[in-house]
């Protein structure tokens, strides 16, 4: 699951920001826990397209959340940035399999190349082969 690192603040602005962050965290957690495979993307992103096509090609029908078309997209993008480790890493595509954060394009392609992606997808219930 996701790991939370929201800090509390004594100011009302800090509490509102924390509440908004908690709400985004809860929204992402709900989507991720309720679907075998979730891909957070930005429409027009070529790497997002590659990940989606790979999954579709394997026979997986992932839940796709396009952040630029979602009302909470900016906040989710920030949360994904922190999950990706920051440091200039692009947070999308962000792939969750079986409720766990797998990673971005590098992690997905690495798992595909080393043969661990299909077993992960089977274990998550995304493939029945």
From TrEMBL:
Keywords: Cytoplasm, Redox-active center. GO terms for cellular component: cytoplasm. It is found in: Cytoplasm. Residues 37-101 form the Glutaredoxin domain. Its main location: cytoplasm. SUPFAM superfamilies: Thioredoxin-like. CDD domains: GRX_GRXh_1_2_like. PROSITE patterns: GLUTAREDOXIN_2. Belongs to the glutaredoxin family. CC-type subfamily. This is Glutaredoxin domain-containing protein. It comes from Penstemon smallii.
